Amino acid sequence: MKKIALIGSGGSGKSTFSKQLGAKFHIKVWHLDQLLWKSNWTPTSREEQIQIQKELVKEEEWIIDGNYNSTLDIRLEAADTILFFDLPRTVCVYRVLKRMIKYRNQTRPDMAEGCREKLDFHFLKWIWNFPKSKRPNLLRKLERLSKEKKVIIFKSSKDVKRFLQSC
To answer: Per the confidence metrics, is the pTM higher than 0.90?
Structure first.
C-alpha cells in the first residue's frame, strides 16, 4: 500500500482515517477539500482540479481522501489500494452535524483556509442521497478495479477500526 485513494460519503470518516493511516505508514496525506477549495468556499476550476490531481498521483507514495466524482478516475487508476467508506447515511449525517457544531465558525484542519464550517442543506441532501445517487456507480467501478487493485469496502466503524489495528 503506497498509493491509497479513500472515497465515500461526506461524514464517513475519510479525513480522520487518512490522517491516522498516514501517521502509521509515514505517507503524505492529501485532503482534496483542502486543495480544491479556495477561501470563502470558492471552487477551483475543473482544469485546476485535474492538473492538481495529475501531479499528486505522480508521487511515489500518497494517501488522497475525497470524492470529486468528475476527477475520480485519475485517483482510482493511479492507486494500488482503494478504500471505500460505505457507512450508513444516518451515521454520516450524524457525524457531519457533530462536525458542524465542533468547528462552527472555524476552518477544519482538512479544509482550505477561509472555508468556515457551516450548515449546508445541499450538502446534507447530497449525503442522504449518496447511497442511491453515487454508491451504485462506485461499486461498479470498484468491482472492475478489484481485479488489478486492492479494494476494501468498510461497512461500519468497527470495520475501519479493525483494519487500522491490523495494519
So the answer is: yes
